[in-house]
Design a protein that fits this description.
single chain; 87 residues; alpha+beta
Length: 87
């Protein structure tokens, strides 16, 4: 049996804007030396992330986090979640 741990990276999220009327949450996420800006149009289920570098690494875990926590997220709030990968 291997004692190797699964790779893990902590992602830090800050919510910068939230509008229930517009169906939008904006923020920034940092993980593994990368930084991205995101816009989540939750009514359409659309997550936009910039810049494109490293976007494929963060898009799915960030989308899961936002879907799970959407009603708990507030502008100015700082949040963390774990990603099962080295970024």
């Amino acid at each position: 049996m291997s004692s190797k741990r699964l790779p893990q990276t902590t992602a830090h999220v800050r919510i910068t804007r939230q509008s229930w009327q517009d169906g939008l949450i904006k923020g920034e996420v940092k993980a593994g030396g990368f930084e991205w800006q995101f816009q989540w149009h939750f009514r359409q289920g659309e997550l936009l992330i910039t810049p494109s570098q490293g976007r494929a690494l963060i898009k799915e875990p960030l989308c899961r986090f936002l879907e799970q926590k959407d009603y708990q997220l507030e502008p100015g709030g700082d949040y963390v979640f774990k990603i099962r990968a080295d970024i």
